Amino acid sequence: MSKENFISKTRPHDSAYKHVSGFADYTDDIKEPKETLYGAIGLSKKTHAIIKKIDLNNVKSSEGVISVITYKDIPGRNDVGPVFSGDPIFPEKKIEFYGQPLFAVAATSVELARKAVLKAKIIYKDLNPVVTIKDALNKNNLLTKVKKIKRGNASKKIKNSKNFLKGNFTTGSQEHFYLEGQAAFVIPKEDNNFLVYSSTQHPSETQQLIAKTLNQKSNSINVLVRRIGGGFGGKETNFMTSCICALLSRKTRKPVKLRLDRDEDIIITGKRHEFYSEYEVGFNDEGIIEGLKIKLASNCGMSPDLSLAINERALLHIDNAYYISDIEVSNYLCKTNIATSTAFRGFGGNQGMMAIENIIDNISRHLKKDSSNIREKNFYKKNSRNITHYGMKIEDNVINEIFSKLKKKSNYKKRYLKIKKFNQQNKYKKKGIAITPVKFGISFTTIHLNQAGALVHIYTDGSVHLNHGGIEMGQGTHTKIAQLVANSLGLSYDKVYISSTNTSKVPNTSASAASSTTDLNGAAAINAVSKIKSNLENFIKSKYKIYNKNPIYKNESIVFGNHKFEFKKIIQEAYLNRISLSSTGFYSTPKIKFDKKKFKGRPFLYFCYGAAVSEVSIDTLTGENVIERVDIIHDAGKAINPALELGQIEGGFVQGQGWLTIEELNWKPNGQITTFSPSTYKIPAVSDMPKIFNVEIFKEGVNKEKVVNKAKTTGEPPLMLAMSVFYAIKDAIASVGNYIISPVIDAPATPEKILMSINNLKNKIK
Q1: Kindly report the CA angle at 381 between 375 and 383, in degrees rounded to 5?
Q2: Domain spanning 451-588 has what CATH number?
Q3: Which helix (H) or strand (E) holds 501?
Q4: CA-CA distance, 624 to 458, in Å (whole number)?
Q5: Residue 99 CB coordination number (10 Å)
């Protein structure tokens, strides 16, 4: 693809009409044969305990129940841990979190199945649970050894710095709250094979883990996914539902559908990792960080899952957009008795970013300077101060340009002064403003995952069938990849059809995660197309004696200089001459090389950059807050489909806003989660969105690396733009004390926490 071959065309999401009209099929919409059974899971009512006795006789005799399974009915591996073991499908003796699956039933209806599981009689021996990060740290309850990352001599630099601060900070957990919950539908086939429909971000691993559970070969399991109703990382490794469903289907030899209701989904599944940080920082009078020591601790829940990779990404983003010459980071992975924490949009990067942004914010308040200026002074530069603490040279830095452009376009300086004046004149209502940057690395940090495959067919009528390993979960992946393929062949978009992601067509795929789905699968699709094009071109050149001419694919034709061939006709001609019109494609991300033990190298192909200005108002009597205005500039490179990218930026921001201001998860001291339903766990509504919402794609953006269309992803990075909302709230709170003291507040900044922070501030200045 030439450097000039940019698509950048706006077109609707391929399922947009189906989404709003209800015609989009999800796992639970698949038509069921008459003999279909319905699954339900029996959950633990204890957090940490030994199972003394489990009596399921009343369950088995319950109306409509056809089969009941426990760990004894698992013919293969009783563990769905994606990387490390520790996630039993059903525990044999020890319960590790409240709501842990203990058994499952298959019944003739959903209602009867759910009623049946409530009839179990279980006798427990209680054990003392560990629920919080602080409890885990006090008991040294860790999943792995403490990891330390060093560059320079942070202790010495801090000691010799003119200014010093220390403190702590917490970012809370977050429930995925995808619109489509966890669901699976398994249909037995001949030869003990199984067809699996699953709401998953990772069909290949779903296939592999079901095979291991059933003690079968992977080729006996075929997983199909047309679309999922949101994932956000919560469907990257949660294989429990699919494996239980497969076990029920295997035992009954009937089709089985298993769909968790919302309460069960929240109770059973993992959340975003809560992170706690303690820091010491030394800096000069200009606010430039000279030395930083920081301790990061995360609540990983009862098993490893993806916690090692998530914490690695937190360590890789502890710098955000800032050069820190001397740094020492200690990382603690806390094992607790809650559902295993898992991937969530940002994958640890945003927790690391929030930690450093809190430090930058506190430095600015200590020096009584505008935090935007302190941020700018610490930015990575183009030709110096451009090596990260893990040794990667930043070659695509545009944060200075974006930040400067946004400050000017949003009229930040004038509004900053206006807000200060407003706060002097108003006693109970206060305003705040903040601008924060984002630098986010793109690639899986587990290197072997940076690969993708595709399968492309061109039929004799000139239509194209494409299958790839990516999952469409609302982000528009199918639309963008179809655009890429159509553009490469010079065809209209409607000539390309993408079918369900299918493990029998494209094997060994990576999860649709790490903001890499379009980059990877789009490149694999183009690779497949290039092979077919090569076959076509060689045929045309040979038959029509065309030499020294390169083809141009446009307007449903292939043009060689003065020779023009209608695409459909030349395809038919190629077929009659036995030319292959089908090919697989493959792509692996180049340049990636990272030593995890030394924590050195290049873990990312490129970085995404962006910045956001947020203005908020708070009620100092109630803590209630309103987002008055948000301005965003985000680098999407040469966007494949600007409309979809804008949607991702807006949606990501609002989800991040929810994480940092609204969404609060709570557990009782005994480990029982209390925020497990829409009535107790709130996500942002339309009324919570910014009153004024200006979003712009960085017009000068272009990816310097060889990626499809020179585009950059907008999957995860926009979520971090919402940091500006949190620090605008913190700015508003600071005005209560006339900006003399830096407020203490953890995320999420709920009205209750805002009010407590205000009261704490008032007590300090008395």
Answers
A1: 170
A2: 3.30.365.10
A3: strand 501-502
A4: 58
A5: 24
Residue 483 and residue 485: Cα distance in Å, rounded?
6
Is 462 strand, coil or helix?
coil
For residues 215 and 79, the answer to whether their CB atoms sit within 8 Å is: no
- For the chain of 766 residues, list the mean pLDDT of each consecutive stretch of 10: 59 91 95 97 98 98 98 98 96 98 98 98 98 98 97 98 98 98 98 98 98 98 97 97 98 98 97 98 98 98 98 98 98 98 98 98 97 98 97 98 98 98 97 98 96 98 98 96 97 96 97 97 98 97 92 96 96 98 98 96 98 98 98 97 97 98 97 96 96 97 96 97 98 96 97 98 90
Token couple for 62: 């319950």
For the record, the structure tokens of 278 come out as 């303690």
Answer yes or no: are the C-beta atoms of 204 and 218 closer than 8 Å: no
Token duo for residue 616: 């908020």
Q: Residue 689: is it exposed, middle or buried by C-beta count within 10 angstroms (0-12/13-18/19+)? A: middle
Residue 272 is classified by DSSP as P
Amino acid in position 23 = F
Report yes or no: 626 and 691 within 8 Å, Cβ to Cβ.
yes
Stretch (H or E) spanning 553: strand 552-554
Q: What is the 3-state secondary structure (H, E, C) of 731-766?
A: HHHHHHCCCCCCCCCCECCCHHHHHHHHHHHHHHHC
Largest CA distance in the chain: 91
Q: Is 277 helix (H, G, I), strand (E, B) or coil?
A: strand
Q: How far apart are CA 399 and CA 383, in angstroms?
A: 14
Residue 118 makes CB contacts below 8 A (sequence gap 6+) with: 42
**Burial label, 278 (beta-carbon count in 10 A; 0-12, 13-18, 19+):** middle
Residues of the chain with CATH 3.90.1170.50: 32-128+182-228+235-268
Q: What whole-number distance in Å separates Cα of residue 264 and Cα of residue 256?
A: 18
CATH 3.30.365.10 domain position(s) in the chain: 275-445+596-765, 451-588
Secondary structure string (H, E, C) spanning 52-94: EEEECHHHHCCCCEEEEECHHHCCCCCCCCCCCCCCCCCCCCE
Put simply, whether the predicted model's pTM sits higher than 0.90 gets the answer yes
Q: Which of 529, 488, 525, 489 is nearest to 509 (CA)?
A: 525
Structure tokens belonging to residue 381: 């530069």
What is the set of active-site residues?
716
What CATH architecture applies to the domain 275-445+596-765? 2-Layer Sandwich (3.30)
CATH code for the structural domain at 32-128+182-228+235-268:
3.90.1170.50
